[in-house]
Write a structure and sequence with these properties.
heterodimer; B: alpha+beta; Alpha-Beta Plaits; 6 domains; 7-stranded mixed sheet
Chain lengths: 58, 790
């Protein structure tokens, strides 16, 4: 039954890891701008097409 | 197809369409930007959004001040031997195309290492190689593609702007602890007598204790500080019962687990703090792209051109002294009071007074700070330094340094006084009664009352109601500084309007012609002449001639600041200032007019006046029963009779008011115990806006500029003002209803507490239940309220 100690320790450790990750990301300003990244991620495809076009032109 | 739209900026191309690459452009500026993009494989710009661009402005010489190392150093975020980082505010950022092109700046200029857009703030952070390029070149590149950054004196003065994220941390800590404590308390909720729980309960309990430590000592710190401040200034604010509740919860729970009396209330404790912080977080809605703290500094330039021994040099504007000679170019702003020495000045004071029509000045005339030069370069001699100027002196008034509004008593503060007294007396009475019945339970009852009466739901009612109202108002284009403004708006009984720029609009003008009627052929020539001119008055007049055709003009001459003369088929036309058209006529300062003469015969003049906004009269009629109304204007009394005829009878009208006078008018009304709302637009209203209980700045374009205020209202929603005030009043009613609702929960809880049967599980159910039902009630009812505004 002492496995409960192990499980408790592990689960709390995992929780703390995520908690630290949260604090770290807030500190780095990741939550300051919640809008632009949602637009930015849609651009990547366009950029690739651009590059291919350029290569074929050259 | 409709009228041809410019492929770049979306403006309708009138007569002169420029075709390039099978696309239509309204002007050479737009075409040039398109060329830059197509040469650099950046035409994707036009795929994300139709016509995303803007027309680039003429900026020759405007950014020469960026050659000064001292100024550049102040603007940079980071500077190393070969890397510099700068954050620039670009008002034009408005769509995904903007983000895309600004983040691909490195394709246009290889020295730019990286650029990142912060869309909500309309800012771009550019990293570039400082060995091969300069800040000036980066700014010029941005201007060339019509993303001209806005650099003002405010940027020069800003210190390290640290973002306060402590509330997010506290919310994180409380949420983390709340979640874990809930899991850990589950076993004891259900298996009260099992062997298993007997073995392990101490582990669970002490773990919960550990998790609650950061919640009590870090996350709820603000409540203790605020309660302490409240007691010291003898105000029973809502944070006192909260702080008391948290303390009692923690102490009683700790004692319970130390002496093995029970599990304690760690679940309720962490949940309470988490919900309270959530309310605070929700209330803290900010409009990143707006600033409510602006003064003249965010409007004034960083540097101007000084003429020193016939050499031009860029000087920081604080370095300007009385007697200096300055060169003010076209579209530049005059930062000081000065005397015009050379050139003709057309000064646009619209940011200061709201007056749209530029004022003509001759050499020797006095010019006031804050005006924008509209035609050609002028030379001026400085009369006062920046801080001593007529306009900027306003900011030395006390009203800008003191925070008058922090003393406002919110609705929560009002109720909390009675609430705190009631809770404490119930707790004491119940304890005394129990001392006679069962002494061992007396302390138990005392703490239970304080725990269950902890006004979580009451403390949440106002933040969620007002926070949601703030968002609803924001969608309706009334942007408020914070939630307190809504409460203040609900108490308003007096409304003061500025006239020019507030009741009138600078988007539309009324043009009236007085003189000998013009023949059709004369009108055609007049319109054709106006078309060729770029002067703002010419553009306004040109739009006034709708039906006439235009003809090509062979001989056209524009005298800067004077007027236009045209010769065509033996007809000569002169139009412009009175002195230019007809020597005998005297310039009158009362109105703005364009005079016309054909072949030397004086014909008449076009008078241009700001027109009143649509719905002004009905707005006043809607407000007249419930509010004292007045109009305070810096202009002369020319419009007095007209306003008296059109506005409700008891509206008071004041003219010739200086910026300080406007402030005094507001202060005087406040002395008479009136709650004053000021609605203005220009820098000259800044004092009155700051002094009033609610200062709302009306803005044609919310991105550009508005003086310090409590709220910014988009001019298109001007006639919604009564609806906004009504909605604020109803919001306060919703809060009061929520108070009643949460008091019901408190009464149920008190029954358990007073009878001495408060179990942790009851507290753990009652507290979140009351909080959540309050949140649901306020959110639903404010949303219903918001629908009515439309």
């Amino acid at each position: 039954m002492s496995v409960i100690y192990l499980l408790l320790t592990l689960s709390i450790l995992v929780a703390i890891v995520f908690f630290i990750a949260f604090i770290y990301s807030v500190k780095n300003g990741q939550y300051d701008d919640a809008y632009t990244p949602s637009v930015r991620m849609l651009f990547d495809d366009e950029l690739v097409i651009d590059k291919i076009e350029k290569q074929t032109k050259d | 197809m409709k009228a041809t739209q410019c492929y770049h900026c979306g403006d309708s191309c009138n007569d002169d369409v420029i075709e390039f690459d099978d696309k239509h452009f309204c002007c050479n500026g737009c075409k040039t930007v398109y060329e830059i993009f197509s040469d650099n494989d950046l035409t994707c710009y036009y795929n994300f959004q139709d016509n995303p661009g803007a027309i680039p402005n003429e900026i020759k010489g405007k950014y020469d001040f960026l050659e000064s190392q001292e100024i550049v150093d102040k603007l940079l975020d980071f500077s190393d031997t070969n890397t510099q980082i700068v954050t620039l505010y670009i008002p034009h950022i408005h769509c995904s195309s903007c983000i895309w092109v600004l983040e691909n700046l490195h394709k246009l200029q290889s020295e730019i290492v990286n650029s990142q857009v912060d869309f909500p703030k309309k800012k771009v952070r550019i990293t570039y190689n400082s060995e091969t390029t300069t800040l000036k070149e980066v700014v010029l590149l941005l201007s060339a593609i019509a993303y001209e950054p806005y650099i003002s004196l405010e940027d020069y003065e800003r210190g390290s702007n640290k973002v306060d994220r402590s509330l997010t941390y506290k919310l994180g800590v409380a949420g983390f602890a709340f979640g874990n404590v809930m899991f850990l308390s589950f076993p004891e909720y259900f298996e009260v007598d099992g062997y298993w729980i007997e073995t392990y309960k101490n582990v669970f309990r002490w773990l919960m204790f550990t998790f609650s430590l950061p919640v009590v000592f870090y996350a709820s710190k603000d409540y203790f500080v605020s309660a302490y401040k409240g007691i010291r200034s003898k105000i029973l604010n809502i944070d006192i019962p909260i702080a008391l509740g948290i303390t009692v919860l923690f102490l009683r729970s700790t004692i319970e687990i130390v002496f093995d009396l029970g599990t304690g209330f760690f679940d309720s404790l962490t949940g309470l703090v988490f919900f309270l912080l959530l309310g605070k977080f929700f209330q803290q809605k900010t409009y990143n792209f707006l600033s409510f703290e602006r003064d003249y500094k965010s409007y004034f330039p960083i540097a101007v051109t000084r003429i020193n021994n016939s050499k031009e040099e860029n000087v920081q504007i604080y370095a300007i002294e009385k007697g200096d000679r300055l060169l003010i170019r076209n579209q530049e702003l005059l930062p000081v009071d000065a005397i015009l020495i050379n050139g003709t000045a057309q000064i646009d004071y619209s940011f200061v007074t709201g007056e749209a029509v530029p004022v003509l000045k001759k050499s020797g005339d006095k010019l006031f700070a804050g005006g924008k030069q509209l035609s050609g370069s002028i030379e001026v001699e400085v009369l006062n330094s920046v801080s001593q100027s007529y306009l900027t002196q306003l900011w030395s008034n006390d009203v800008f340094s003191k925070d008058y509004k922090s003393s406002f008593k919110t609705i929560t503060d009002t109720i909390s006084k009675n609430f705190t007294v009631a809770v404490l007396s119930i707790a004491i009475v119940a304890t005394i009664v129990w001392l006679f019945i069962d002494v061992s339970k007396a302390l138990n009852v005392f703490t239970a009352v304080l725990i269950i009466a902890c006004p979580c739901a009451i403390a949440l009612a106002a933040p969620f109601t007002l926070g949601n109202m703030l968002r609803i108002f924001g969608k309706q284009k009334l942007y408020l500084k914070n939630t307190t403004v809504i409460e203040q708006l609900a108490q308003i009984d007096t409304i003061i309007f500025d006239k020019t720029g507030t009741l009138t609009t600078h988007k539309e003008n009324t043009i009236s012609y007085t003189g000998i009627p013009l023949k059709i052929s004369e009108k055609v020539l007049l319109k054709s002449a106006l078309r060729a001119s770029n002067h703002p008055l010419s553009r306004t007049l040109y739009r006034n001639f709708k039906e006439e055709k235009t003809i090509a003009i062979s001989s056209f001459e524009e005298v800067l600041g004077k007027g236009i003369s045209v010769h065509q088929n033996n007809t000569s036309l002169k139009l412009g200032a009175a002195s230019f058209v007809n020597q005998e006529l005297q310039e009158t300062s009362l109105d703005t007019a364009v005079h016309v003469s054909f072949n030397g015969d004086y014909k008449g003049k076009f008078s241009i006046k700001n027109s009143y906004r649509k719905g002004v009269w009905s707005l006043f009629n809607a407000l007249k029963d419930a509010f004292n109304l007045s109009v305070v204007s810096g202009d002369n009394e020319g419009e007095k009779d007209f306003l008296q005829d059109n506005l409700p009878k008891d509206t008071s009208l004041l003219f010739n008011q200086k910026p300080e006078d406007k402030l005094t008018v507001v202060a005087q009304l406040q002395k008479e115990q009136k709650k004053v709302a000021m609605i203005g637009d220009g820098l000259n209203d800044a004092g009155a806006l700051a002094q009033s209980d609610v200062g709302i700045a009306l803005s044609e374009n919310i991105n550009i500029f508005s003086p310090a205020c409590d709220g910014i209202l988009d001019a298109s929603r001007f006639n919604k003002i009564p609806a906004f005030i009504m909605a604020s009043k109803k919001a306060l009613k919703i809060i009061k209803l929520s108070f009643i609702l949460s008091l019901c929960y408190n009464l149920i809880g008190l029954y358990f507490a007073i009878t001495g049967q408060l179990q942790p599980v009851i507290a753990a159910i009652l507290m979140p239940l009351s909080s959540i039902s309050i949140v649901v009630f306020t959110t639903v009812s404010t949303n219903l309220l918001g629908k009515k505004i439309k």
